[in-house]
Design brief:
heterodimer; A: 360 residues; alpha+beta; Ubiquitin-like (UB roll); Serum Albumin, Chain A, Domain 1; 3 domains; five-stranded mixed β-sheet; four-stranded mixed β-sheet; 11 helices; 11 strands; 16% strand; B: 240 residues; Yope Regulator, Chain: A; 32% helix; Atg12 conjugating enzyme activity (chain B); ubl conjugation pathway (chain B)
Chain lengths: 360, 240
């Protein structure tokens, strides 16, 4: 695993400008918004104590659970902050303007949140799920000692990579690719053709599909309802490439969206869309840039010539940890280096789907 | 599937097969109950003219809605004749767990009947079925967990108390974008394996995918008070 990349991921943060919703303003004048640098790998409810103290003079006496909203859309608190930003801001907005509420929790849209404990257990349950996907059981996570569990959670809360590494190596969640290379050396468990053993990678895919095309991201329509986002919580099966071709990020995304992409065996032409306009864009304000690591991979990756068919779905954008990786990057690199602390790789995809054509 | 080397999980394709077989058996042996229906997802196919999705790629879940659990209405009060039939039927069956004498939390001092919806959804991560459920009053107002607890068999309520965060969790329904309760699936593959190993005929003849959901629900159903008639549990393969 590239230690540098993991450091960049953990250091990544989103500048937030948080406004108190007018219905929660009990004293005038309305308070100024709070400016916070929120960790990408963190969760919005964890900002509660900071926000309560910032807005304390203006808040009404009786408070409900905290919740956040972006342009009218209540934000799902169990999705990491960086993922919410990558998904909901087609054109990254800096600072990201959010509204905070302390009353009127939308119980029909958001699952309840009882503060830090809810976030912690959501994190641990996701970690368990990731362990199950990788190892076939959750034993290592379930058998974590109490002090280890506390240290793991604290390290995520505070963004401390060192203690996190100490505890998480005990969980033996391994790395994609390296693990299989190691297995090839140590045991005789390869099959006779010497194929790399397939493995499962925990992935959460957030797909926003639009039928109108747009050239610039700032022209992209706003996501105003979670019904417009398909959430796919399905592991990616890494297959050894045929003829030595490695399994790319593009392969991984396509494998999770079979209804949009023809199986290669069924089509003669490649239905890839790897446009030049999807150059990796890294904003200097976003500290999660992996530019150095990215360049290393770019130099060694193959360039795939592409043609896209007009009647296929088109991937407009793939965003992970705020960057747009080249789709032909080996997926194992992406999985090992860009995953979140609970060992899930969160991928945001903007998909343009074709209009239904009338065929004669 | 060889019972000895089987790990207790099933593929999403097997889940489809098992769901179909389960729904048919349920209709046959449990006809007084409403049937389980298959709800395909996504309900709206994406607008493209790719070849028709193969059966194997179809996703969805089994749904049983508007069910009254035994004990989920105040004793002596019924909302409809149908409810009477359901309740008296389950009371007559073999008691598998202690009788639940809990009564509903009342609002406005008038007894209310509660409905429950159950969905059986396949988990790609754990490769097992997962039970999602929620309860609500007739007017649609949802039940909170502590109210649902009162309708659960007594031993479930105790386990719930002890493992608040890992037994029944409230999460988003994978397809419906709304909060539902779910029974946490992380131990499922292990006890399914044990269940099948304990059955001699299965150990001999192999695990039948068709039987998976019946066996699964016979265990999981006990947590929420759904009972499987004894006849459904007989594996047809063993009756030669």
């Amino acid at each position: 695993m590239d230690m540098e990349a993991q450091r960049y991921v953990w250091d990544g943060a989103i500048p937030l400008q948080i406004h108190l919703h007018e219905s929660d303003v009990a004293t005038l004048p309305a308070p100024p918004p709070a400016l916070i640098l929120a960790p990408r790998i963190g969760y919005l409810p964890l900002l509660a104590s900071h926000l309560k103290s910032h807005f304390s003079s203006a808040l009404p006496p009786r408070l409900d659970t905290i919740w956040f909203e972006y342009k009218g859309l209540p934000l799902k608190w169990y999705i990491p902050t960086g993922v919410l930003f990558d998904l909901l801001c087609a054109e990254p907005e800096r600072p990201w303007n959010l509204t905070v509420h302390f009353t009127g929790y939308p119980v029909n849209i958001l699952i309840p949140c009882e503060g830090e404990d809810s976030v912690k257990w959501s994190f641990i349950n996701s970690l368990k799920e990731a362990a199950y996907i990788i190892n076939g059981n959750c034993k290592n996570v379930m058998n974590m000692s109490q002090p280890d569990q506390v240290e793991l959670w604290r390290s995520v809360l505070n963004g401390n990579l060192e203690p996190y590494r100490r505890v998480s190596t005990k969980l033996k969640l391994g790395t994609v690719g390296d693990e299989y290379a190691a297995k090839l050396n140590l045991s005789g468990e390869t099959d006779f053709s010497g194929q790399v053993k397939a493995g499962r990678v925990p992935v959460r895919l957030y797909v926003w599909s639009v039928s109108e095309d747009f050239e610039d991201l700032e022209d992209a329509p706003q996501i105003d309802s979670w019904d417009k986002v398909s959430y796919i919580n399905r592991p990616v099966e890494i297959q050894g490439g045929e003829g030595g071709r490695c399994f790319t990020l593009h392969d991984a995304v396509k494998s999770l969206l079979p209804e949009y992409f023809l199986d290669k065996s069924l089509s003669n032409e490649e239905s890839l869309t790897v446009g030049d306009e999807h150059e990796q864009r890294v904003s200097s304000e976003d500290a999660s840039s992996d530019r150095k690591a990215e360049e290393e991979v770019e130099n060694s990756s193959e360039h795939i010539t592409s043609c896209y068919q007009h009647d296929d779905a088109e991937i407009k954008l793939v965003r992970i940890q705020g960057i747009q990786p080249k789709l032909e990057i080996p997926f194992s690199w992406v999985a090992n280096n860009l995953m979140n602390p609970e060992h899930f790789l969160h991928i945001c995809v903007y998909l343009k789907v074709p209009q239904a054509n009338t065929m004669s | 599937m060889d019972a000895l080397s089987w790990d207790g999980t099933l593929t999403s394709r097997d889940f489809l097969v098992s769901a179909r077989a389960f729904a048919e058996k349920w209709k046959e042996f449990n006809s007084a109950f409403p049937p389980w229906t298959w709800v395909p997802c996504p309900p709206k196919q994406p607008p493209c003219h790719l070849p028709q999705l193969q059966q194997q790629q179809q996703q969805g879940y089994l749904s049983l809605e508007k069910t009254c659990l035994p004990g989920s209405s105040k004793k002596g009060h019924v909302a409809s004749q149908e409810d009477v039939d359901e309740i008296s039927l389950t009371e007559g069956e073999e008691e598998l767990e202690p009788v639940d004498n809990a009564t509903l939390v009342e609002t406005n001092n008038s007894p209310q009947v509660c409905y429950y919806d159950f969905h059986i959804v396949y988990s790609d991560s754990y490769r097992v079925p997962v039970l999602y459920f929620h309860g609500y009053y007739i007017d649609g107002h949802p039940l909170a967990l502590d109210e649902i607890e009162k309708d659960l068999p007594a031993c479930s309520a105790k386990v719930l108390l002890e493992s608040k965060w890992t037994f029944i969790t409230q999460e988003e329904h994978p397809y419906l974008n709304r909060p539902w309760y779910k029974l946490h699936p992380c131990g499922t593959s292990e006890w399914m394996k044990l269940l099948f190993l304990g059955d001699d005929s299965l150990a001999k003849n192999g695990v039948a995918v068709e039987q998976y959901l019946v066996s699964w629900l016979s265990v999981v159903g006990q947590v929420v008070g759904i009972r499987i008639p004894f006849e459904m549990l007989n594996n047809p393969k063993s009756c030669n």
